[in-house]
Amino acid sequence: MNTTMNKKDQIENRIRKVRSYLDGESLSGLFLLNVESSNRPNLRYLTGFDCSFGALAVGKSELLFLTDSRYIEAAGEELNPLRDSLNLTLEEVGGKRLRSIGERVHEAMADGAGEIAVDPRNISLDHFNQMEDLIDGLTGKRGPCAKIRWVKDQGEIDLQRRAAQLTDQGLERTLEDFRPGMTEEELALKVEFYMRKAGAEEVAFDSIVASGPKSAMPHAHPGDREIREGDLLLFDIGARYGGYCADMTRTVHVGEPEEDIKDLYRVVLDSHFAGLDALAAGEKGSAVDQAARDVIERAGYEDKFRHGLGHGVGLEVHEGPRLSQTGEARLEPGMVVTIEPGVYLPGRGGIRIEDMVVLTEEGPESLSGFPKEELLVL
Ligand code: ZN
Ligand code: ZN
């Protein structure tokens, strides 16, 4: 584990980025409300503290964190080291908790006398309306959290590297256990068991295990279909570690594959490598998508690859930036994204090869380590 950046530095750095955004947009503050985990990743990102209920107000110089009796003690342990350097106040709210939050944030932010942004995607209309009545200056303008999270620091990359390793290990052990006749559900359970046995906190998302014709559905749910000779078998899986997600897809074959399936695997693999090669700082997400898409189009499968090439991954499995035909954002070192081209033949099966990749100053580096160079035959 790289310890060059400690947690205090990490959080201070993030709060600094929020404030510089607020200055740039002439906003006086940011308000995050997390009810039943509605804004959990952003709150965790800006405080280091993970909870299902809490609120954070970021002003020009002050920081107010509010939570209830269930979390106050643990929050104190986590946040006390940050109190002085961040001018952080930690308070418990009880009774009518939402009303208390609104009133306290209003008091704390009264000096700013300007607009206060929220995370529109992470606050319900009902909660926004309640808070708007209590907090002067609250607007629906978007705060910067989601975008700041696109670029990871070294500590985050270390956690994602570990999450990716646990995912590799989970798949490796699962395939060792594989026997024809097992169901998709059984394999999904094994993947989860082995990832967690290796050290994962949980699965980062519902595992996709899809066999035979079902592998042609990009987001199929595992079912009770028994896997047999001649099936393509697709695993789209990820472990979570230290809050951070991994995301990887491998497609294997049960029994000796036909030539056309081997050829198809080669097309998807070439597309995957074309995407990796195109991944560079300064490039637009859409250009990376196009580089990989060109390979599939040239092979005659242009209408069989109908999702984006990839997406950012971090505290959430789907974040920005998008690597898709509409991905306008330019890539930067520190971004962690997936490269996941696929070709899906309805009624027959699908092949997708997905790595999670960090873009470094020197270029892309795959964090996923499970072999992909050949279609693995079980
Ligand atoms: Zn995936
Ligand atoms: Zn993905």
Summarize the structure in words:
This protein is of the alpha+beta class. It has 2 domains: 7-148, 3-Layer(aba) Sandwich (Creatine Amidinohydrolase, Chain A, domain 1); 154-377, Alpha-Beta Complex (Creatine Amidinohydrolase), CATH 3.90.230.10. Helices cover 37% and strands 22% of the residues. It contains 11 helices and 19 strands. Helix 8 packs across helix 9 (184-198). Bound molecules: zinc ion (2 copies). One zinc ion is lined by residues 236, 247, 249, 354. One zinc ion binds next to loops.
**CATH homologous superfamily caption of the largest domain:** Creatinase/methionine aminopeptidase superfamily
The percent of residues in helical segments reads 25-40%
**Content of β-strand:** 15-25%
Shape: elongated
The CATH topology of the largest domain turns out to be: Creatine Amidinohydrolase
The total domain count is: 2
CATH C-level of the largest domain: Alpha Beta
N-to-C CA distance: 35 Å
Largest sheet: 6 strands, mixed
Q: Based on helices, strands and strand pairing, what is the structural class?
A: alpha+beta
**Order of strands in the sheet with most strands:** 4-3-2-1-5-6
Strand segment tally: 19
| Helical segment count | 11
Alpha carbon gyration radius: 23 Å
The secondary-structure element order is HEHEEHHEHEHEHHHEEEEEEHHEEEEEEE
Bound molecules: zinc ion
SSE map:
Layout lengths: L6 H18 L4 E6 L5 H8 L6 E5 L4 E5 L4 H8 L3 H4 L1 E5 L4 H13 L6 E3 L6 H10 L3 E5 L2 H4 L5 H24 L6 H15 L3 E2 L4 E4 L20 E6 L1 E3 L2 E2 L2 E6 L5 H20 L6 H14 L11 E3 L6 E5 L12 E4 L2 E4 L3 E4 L2 E6 L2 E4 L12
Parallel strand pairs: 1-5, 3-4, 5-6
Antiparallel strand pairs: 1-2, 2-3, 7-10, 8-9, 9-12, 10-11, 13-14, 15-18, 16-17, 18-19
Helix pairs in contact: 5-6, 8-9, 10-11
